[in-house]
Amino acid sequence: QDNGFEQFIINYCNEKLQQIFILMTLKEEQEEYIREGIRWTPVEFFDNSVICNLIENSKGGILAMLDEECLRPGVVNEDTFLTKLNQLFATHKHYESRETQNARHVMDASLAPQCFRIHHYAGKVVTYNVTGFIEKNNDLLFRDLSQAMWAARHPLLRSLFPEGDPQKASLKLPPTAGFQFKSSVATLMKNLYSKNPNYIRCIKPNETKTAMLFTPELVLAQIRYLGLLENVRVRRAGYAFRQLYGPFLERYKMLGTRTWPRWAGGDRDGVEALLEELAIPTEELAFGHTKIFIRSPRTLFDLEKRRQERVAQLVTLIQKMFRGWRCRTQYQLMRKSQIVISAWFRGHA
Question: Which segments constitute the Myosin motor domain (predicted)?
Answer without folding.
Answer: 1-308
